[in-house]
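Recall that a protein's primary structure is simply its ordered list of amino acids. Everything else, from secondary elements to tertiary packing, is in principle encoded there. The following example makes that idea concrete.
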Amino acid sequence: MMAKRAKPGRVKVKLVRSTIGFDKRQADVVRGLGLRRINHTVELQDVPSIRGMIHKVRHLVRVSDVEG
């Protein structure tokens, strides 16, 4: 019998600082999150891989939980 997996939550990620002046890999992570410009916000699944990407660029983004 297979165990039921809980449906992952969602998080909002907003780019609040420019990637200019930081390591190119950090700019690649920001782009991988789907963020394009300052103040752009995306809604993503709250899974470990996304949390790891957010952690790498935590000084450039602001994160909030999605209601609902």
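The chain has a mean pLDDT of 92. Helices lie at 24-32, 48-56.
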